[in-house]
Amino acid sequence: MEQPPQQQQLIRIANISGRYLVFDPDAVSALRRRANTNGTLVGTTPQQPTQNIFLGLPIELRPEEVDALVRAGVAYVVDDVAAHKSALLSLGPDERRAYIGSLRSRKLAAHKVFAEMTAHKASVAATKANKKKRDPGASEGGGGGGKLDGSSAYSRNSQVTSLGVTPTSSVNYVSPDAYALPAEHNRDSERGALCQFMLSNGYYMTPGLRFGARYSVYPGDPLRFHAHFMANEYGWEEEIPILDIVGGGRLATAVKKAFLIGGREPSATRPDSALPSVRSFSIEWAGM
Amino acid sequence: MDASHQFAADVASAVFENLQEQHQWASLQIHRLPGLSRPMIRGLPPRLLYLHPDDQIAALAYEKSTGTRAQHDAEYEWVLAVHLAEKWTLSSLAAVMDALPEARKRAKRIVLAALHNDSTVVYYIVQEGMIKPRQN
To answer: Are the C-beta atoms of residues A37 and A69 closer than 8 Å to each other?
Structure first.
């Protein structure tokens, strides 16, 4: 269900030691749905940090993406270290109790989900066992196996109750807009214009290093589309070696993409729009 | 004629020869466009050099429905000859695009010819704006 825009919440981006992170799963899905921004999953488990192919929350955003989101009025940035410090220091006994209560309720919710899952598995196993019983060829051993399954499900269940809950975000006890940073509109305005231009035109971007560029640009959600462009941003008067155009163009064509270069054109002013006037060029190998 | 003009003219003439002798382009001419210090080459390739992906799809649909291959006549192309060691900027590329006459359909495009000292020339199609890649 799409909400009318005025009811949509601003997305809270945490600035922690110079990196821009989003921890809240709802905010991450809102970013993806409403602002065509995926971010990069960077979270890993503290106990098995080597499992780095399957990273989870939080997502990290690039500085220019954050800049574009703030300019578009979709998100705001907070100094999350300061917000956490003050929230933890000002934690009175009542807040402490409330926080422990919220952890407990999360744990109960997780427990309930696990219990439902095991119950569902057990019922599926039971119907299978019943079918086997009705099958004249099946022996009594099938029934015994079913019972064993049930007991193992129980032991898994008891493991769940002993699991602690580590919340991935602290939305419940850090006030969301404490230590909000002012929108940095005076940032170097030439950089990030291409990113802002592509975001506002509905393109999705992922890191482009795998194809030797700054961005891989997708015409829609990267889960549904192949990338169309490998994009690099340049300043209007920044020198671009022809060899870079040749290399980028050749590589992009080899992976069925176009090499895109672009940047803000300072002389062109567009009074009708807050968007920067961006000029871009698509490059493909000519095949001759 | 100063040194940089002479250099640009030499690069253009090398690419001109390459187009004529190696790639069999026809009706080749070197143009001096108003507002542009670099010479531009214009010529007709032996077959169509670039087909927009939407036109590719239309051509495939036409072939499927009629059983005959869609005919596409070759189009005149603008060629910008540069040396591999040169450095260009967005503004200088934009100046070239602005000096070109409006394209008949689709975005403005040039063929960027990069010449190396060993006489290798590589050709790239550069189009104005975000133009999705061809299917191949």
So the answer is: yes
Could you give phi then psi for residue A231, rounded to 5 degrees?
Answer: -120, 140
Whether A170 has its CB under 8 Å from any CB of chain B: the answer is: no
pLDDT averaged over 10-residue windows placed end to end, chain B, 136 residues: 84 93 92 90 92 89 86 90 94 92 86 94 94 85
Q: Do A242 and B134 touch (CB under 8 A)?
A: no
**173-232 of A, contacting B, C-beta below 8 A:** 201, 203, 217, 219, 228-229
A217 vs chain B: nearest CA distance in angstroms?
A: 10
Domain A188-288 belongs in CATH node 3.40.109.10: no
Chain B residues with CB-CB distance to A238 below 8 A: 89-90
Taking the model in full, what pTM does it have? 0.79
User: What's at A186, amino acid-wise?
Assistant: N
The domain limits of chain A are: 1-91+175-186, 93-162, 188-288
In the CATH hierarchy, which top-level class contains the domain A1-91+175-186?
alpha beta
Domain B3-127 has CATH 3.40.1350.10: yes
Instruction: State the best of A203, A226, A282 to mutate against chain B, taking most chain B CBs within 10 Å.
Output: A282
| Strands of A173-234, DSSP E | 204-207, 215-218, 229-233
Using an 8 Å Cβ cutoff, are A263 and A238 in contact?
A: yes
ipTM over 0.90: yes
